[in-house]
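cache lookup: miss for this entity combination. No prior model stored, computing from scratch. Input as submitted by user K.M.:
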Amino acid sequence: MSVIFSRQCEYALQAVLYLALKQNGEMTSIRELTKKLKIPYHFLAKILQSLAQKGLLSSLKGPTGGFSLGMPADEITLFHIVEAIDGVAFMHNCVLGFPDCSGENPCPVHERWGGLREELYSMLVSRNIGQMARELTKPEYKT
Amino acid sequence: MSVIFSRQCEYALQAVLYLALKQNGEMTSIRELTKKLKIPYHFLAKILQSLAQKGLLSSLKGPTGGFSLGMPADEITLFHIVEAIDGVAFMHNCVLGFPDCSGENPCPVHERWGGLREELYSMLVSRNIGQMARELTKPEYKT
DNA sequence: ACTTTACCAGACTTGTTAGTCTTAAATTAG
DNA sequence: CTAATTTAAGACTAACAAGTCTGGTAAAGT
């Protein structure tokens, strides 16, 4: 089981962080991404296409083609990616699965999870992917 | 998508909380549980059987039979249930899915998620299901 | 003993996610 | 123009999770 996000979403987050390292409008091919990130080629292709359709990435065909961010890196947060791939159900669903969980009818961890959920949200929006990518020291992201 | 736990796990947590409300060795049938909690009968049966095999519940066949907690309610935490059904991968896997994420090779949210994970763990172990059940006001748990 | 009530066990079906494959379309370089 | 390269699109398969069904076994009450 993945931790919170689907595998698709994890791959998307990794790929977008990688693209955030590239300057201006430099294009990166799926081939390069799958090589660096060890993600199945055609699967990643579908994910990137989906992100491109939603405007988070822009793409170009042909040699020298590939993918790049669809907007400035400092305007994209991890939350944007999660929202596009997995949706935001985790922001309002009960963590114990009670269909009717609410403030008046709380589950045993309602308050506690509410706090955690806010912190989780903050983790996803408080920094943009430009900042994150610059601080990144992961060897698989090196040229 | 479920928030963090599988649907099986959510059902298990709900059912065990319900059982924690019953006194001493009183038995509760699957029928009663599915009626109160709106969980598919045969699916819940399989989940309870699995919990019984792992010792978290005890079961009895025949009329007056059913399920009850396999140990005192104040010795069971939500974490015990999660551990039995979903496992504890969420306690050590990278939230962004990086296979090699670690202290020396951290993902952009490594530290942040580390703190959240500990709080999540604490949410699951700091109170036992006996306490939780007693404070529970959910109408579907009423007789 | 017999009948009823419940759990037990495992096969089965369905739905969703993950991953693969093939053909088409666009762009670049020669 | 042509060939090579790369994304686009959609069908296809595989694996897993969710949910159903059937026949069996144990216990209780009469």
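stored under new cache key. The two ends of chain A are 31 Å apart (CA to CA).
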